[in-house]
Specification:
6-stranded mixed beta sheet, single chain, alpha/beta
């Protein structure tokens, strides 16, 4: 999609939902920022801090914040500076939304599903079990009204505006210290898994914990947890999870297309010149694209290395997948019955999911099935 179309979509729906009047300015600035800096002679110098949920050692996911900051700087002739900070420097990794909402820091880079305890609808900003792939998620955000709905909730409840700014693609299904073949094998396990995926696992008998990435290795090593999920082979190896758990499961049914996002305090957003707002949105979109490309390019090679060092890859059984899917949609109905925001987003998301699943099964699904099966015979 062309960047100008993105800005148009945001201005007509998402930004309107927040009450921020930046339509004309964004579109005007966008004409100047398609690959080149905007004219900033008469614009102010702005310096922001950005809290993140990531350790610097995970250079792709932390790099999502860096790509955004570097692009904003380039598009504004160095006059709008954003400094990404690792988890724990400004705020704990799971407190980013809170410090941005309070105005303690201007912006953050995090995953919305860390904050489902404050509003379960926020899970849709990252991903939900048996939800949308990265490509499908982008379609829902930009063309299906998803981003506009979520921005309305963020503005109302948190005084924040957010934009997608990274995607991991479909994740792996986590590391286990022992094999799990049936639903009964899950009962009593202590597992690090956030978001609604964690709530589904809880329904299946798992004791769920939410830990930032930097704490997972030690928790597995000491036996404080029996299993953990993070992202995929490249990052999981960086964390050393293969050294403390042997069995690596797939697919990550709870994270088929996990989106990360930049969260901005709404008062600070309103202070920005329209050109800077447009630059930030453009940079977020670029970060969203680059992160996914990097993960897709690196994960298979990392997986082959893990296999050579003793990792045993296992598929989730049909029994576990079916039980998890049933529990997921039961959970959605429970939330929809008691939370109006969740119901509004869920109803829209579910309808879009059905349509795009049908289309992708016909076009991409048929091509993928043929190509992969053909590859096995060559």
């Amino acid at each position: 999609m062309k960047r100008r179309s993105i800005i148009k979509s945001l201005s007509q729906g998402a930004i309107a939902a927040t009450g921020v009047a930046v339509v004309g300015g964004c579109q005007s600035a966008q004409k100047q920022s398609n690959g080149s800096p905007v004219e900033t002679t008469n614009l102010p110098t702005v310096n922001w801090q950005m809290a993140t949920s990531w350790p610097v050692s995970l250079e792709i996911i932390f790099g999502g914040a860096q790509v955004l900051a570097e692009r904003v700087k380039a598009l504004t002739n160095g006059k709008f500076i954003i400094e990404p900070r690792a988890a724990g420097e400004i705020a704990p990794g799971l407190e980013v939304l809170n410090v941005v909402s309070q105005g303690a820091v201007q912006a953050g880079h995090t995953a919305s599903y860390y904050y489902v305890g404050q509003s379960p609808a926020l899970a849709f900003g990252t991903t939900v079990p048996f939800g949308l792939t990265a490509q499908q998620q982008s379609a829902w955000f930009y063309e299906g009204g998803g981003l506009a709905q979520l921005q309305g909730i963020y503005a109302k409840k948190f005084n924040v505006i957010q934009f997608p700014a990274g995607n991991t693609g479909t994740q792996m299904g986590g590391w286990f210290r022992r094999e799990v073949k049936t639903v009964n094998d899950l009962k009593g396990l202590k597992m690090r898994i956030p978001g609604l995926g964690g709530k589904v696992m809880a329904k299946l008998g798992v004791t769920v914990q939410t830990l930032p990435g930097g704490e997972i290795f030690q928790a597995l090593q000491t036996g404080a947890i029996d299993a953990a999920e993070w992202v995929g082979p490249y990052d999981d190896a960086k964390l050393g999870l293969n050294k403390v758990a042997k069995y690596y499961y797939y697919p990550g049914w709870w994270e088929p297309g996990a989106t990360l996002e930049v969260q901005i305090n709404l008062d600070e957003w309103k202070k920005l010149p329209p050109q800077y707002q447009a630059a930030l949105q453009t940079a977020a979109f670029e970060s969203n694209t680059i992160m996914l490309a990097r993960y897709d390019a690196r994960n298979n090679e990392a997986l082959q290395t893990l296999l050579k060092t003793g990792t045993q890859v296992r598929p989730y059984s049909q029994e576990i997948l079916e039980a998890a899917e049933k529990a997921s949609f039961a959970l959605y109905e429970e939330f929809a019955a008691k939370d109006a925001d969740f119901k509004a987003v869920y109803d829209s998301w579910k309808e879009f999911r059905e349509r795009i699943y049908a289309w992708n099964n016909l076009n991409e699904g048929s091509f993928t099935r043929y190509s992969y099966n053909r590859l096995k015979t060559l």
